Structures are given as C-alpha cells and as structure tokens.
Amino acid sequence: MTMNLLFRLKRLLDRGLEALLVLLFFTLSGCVIIQVFTRYVLGDPAIFTEEVSRYAMIWLSLLGAAYAAGKVEHMAYTMLPESLSGDRLRWHVRSVALIVLAFAASVMCYGGGLLVLRALEFEQLTATLEWPMGYVYLCIPLSGALIVFYQLLILLAPEHVPASGANATAPAAPSAD
Q1: Rounded to an integer, what distance in angstroms lies between the CA atom of residue 88 and that of residue 109?
Q2: Is residue 132 predicted with pLDDT exceeding 50?
Q3: In 3D, which of 173, 174, 163 has the Cα closest to residue 73?
Q4: In whole angstroms, what is the distance from residue 63 CA to residue 5 CA?
Q5: Contact status, residue 13 vs residue 70, Cβ threshold 8 Å
Q6: Integer distance in angstroms from the first to the last C-alpha of the chain?
Q7: Residue 48 in contact with residue 129, Cβ under 8 Å?
Q8: What is the C-alpha to C-alpha distance for residues 155 and 34, in angstroms, rounded to an integer?
Q9: Which of 16-25, 87-96, 149-158 has the lowest mean pLDDT?
C-alpha cells in the first residue's frame, strides 16, 4: 500500500515537472525570439530577455536533470549493468542510487539550501530585473530534493526501476495487492 502511494506521488511529480519544463522551455524560446526580433528588426534590444532566458535555462537544466533521474533516463554508463542480473544487478542499482542520493542530499539540498539562505540574507538581486537571487538559486535544492525522492524509490523498490535508461521504459507502479 505504501509503495503504491509513493509511486502515485511519483507520477504526480512527473506530471507537474513535465508541465513546468514545457512552460520553462516556451519561456526560454519566447525570450530568445523577442530578443532577436527587438535587436535585429527594431534595432533596440529588449534588456529583460537575456536575463529571463538565462534563468529559465538554469531552471530548465536542473529540473530537467531531476526529471531524467526520475525516469532513469539520465546519462549513464550501461555496459556494466547490462552484463549483470539478479542480486548483482540489484546491488549495482542500489549502489548507484546511494551515490547519487548522497550527492543530491549533501551538495544540492544542503549546499544549495545554504546558498539560497545566504543570497536572501544579503538581499542579493539580479542585475536587470532586480529579482532576489535566492529565488533563482532555489532550483538547486528543489532539484536536489526531487532527485533524493527518486533515488529513495530506487532503493526501496529496485525491481520496479529499470537498470539503465538506455533501452528501458518508465518503471511501472507496483500492483495494488
């Protein structure tokens, strides 16, 4: 029952991330189109578009990495897992998940969280739009938390997660037994 709830939460997070990533992509594309139009057609570039597109790219990259980790479609060395099976494969999958989890928890969640707090504490602002930089940096611990969640799912139920994303499909939720 608990695993079903976790996999339902995963599907909900995946859908939310998909929508957010599409929105960020269109924001990035729109800003680039506006920048090109105002620079080369009007001869007076819109100054906000460069900054918005930069931060949209940062958020798109980090949240996209979290999404890929959740779908087990991130960049990976697949030669070893493809040659393993049974307990060795489960051990390998769990080992990799532990390493990724440790990195995401320590560097992204903890370190990124400290960065966000420090930027907000010192009231650091973006150059053009004067947005608080803490909100820009917020994508680091947010992406880290998503990666931690996805890695915990792998640790708890490695049989429902493909060993590599190269030729695998998304993991199926456990049955409602």
Answers
A1: 30
A2: yes
A3: 163
A4: 23
A5: yes
A6: 8
A7: yes
A8: 45
A9: 87-96
